């Protein structure tokens, strides 16, 4: 894994590009009739082969930590959260667009911060400027997400006559439903990162942890897909963008991204990963408009700017606290510390 700070930042930025690339490809595949439920099942099933082969090579001369019943139950919980997250994300994209998905994912830093407060990883003292910045930044992020969801606004990019007619016929409720599902997915992403860190601190085997979670996701998502998709043809893959999207998702996102995020959770904590999510909005907007012909709406721009302001207010508050800790020479209980378990004694196994 990458050890240097600059190298780690580069890897996480590349991961964001890969994720937004998948959002764009999945939207294109779903527009051609691909079922998002079948897509989740197939992509995770294929990722098992990549992760299994990598695990055999990596752990051939390494000893795996002991897998206790407590760890196994937590991995099952992780898989359940990941299943719900992926289904909500791709269904939400189907109702809206990759751009809206990236905007709503910008809520992840705020949600992660809230979860840190609930688990007593963070402390708030509104008399201190840094704490006030974090608190207000969280409120601003949520306000921005509501703006994107409830206010679509005028189109800012060129719209063809056929596209314009489609927009007039498209119910506003679809945009709201998509925004709500994506907001739920953003919250589950924060929960996933917290639980992932909780597990990897006690079971420091990133590849095996990701493999086991992927197996659970495959089983659960397959069951859901079999219940939802009654049409047998939905399981028949077409050798076009559908197959390309599944292979891309399995290798680059489910396998490589998941292992990378697990390792970063162990070394830096979940908040460090969530800090890179606002970058996805810029990437998704460019991909959606240039590759899919999506229309950029005023509501998405306004909401995205509001979310970015709130996000950086939270980050500024965190930076001020870390600076104060370094100057005082004391130790703080922060989620981004690689030396302090995220849930410490406040969450029991």
Instruction: Tell me the series of helices and strands, N- to C-terminal.
Output: HHHHHHHHHHHHH
Count of strand segments: 0
**General form:** globular
Return the average pLDDT rounded to an integer.
Answer: 79
Major pleated sheet: none
How many angstroms does the end-to-end distance come to? 27 Å
Q: Please report which band the strand proportion falls in: under 5%, 5-15%, 15-25%, 25-35%, 35-45% or over 45%.
A: under 5%
Overall description:
It is a single chain. By secondary structure, the protein is mainly alpha-helical. It is 74% helix and 0% strand. It contains 13 helices and no strands. The protein has helices spanning 5-31, 36-58, 69-95, 98-105, 108-118, 129-150, 161-169, 172-202, 206-228, 241-267, 270-274, 279-291, 298-328. Helix 1 runs antiparallel to helix 10 (241-267), helix 4 packs antiparallel against helix 12 and helix 6 runs antiparallel to helix 13. Residues 160-169 and 330-349 have low confidence and may be disordered.
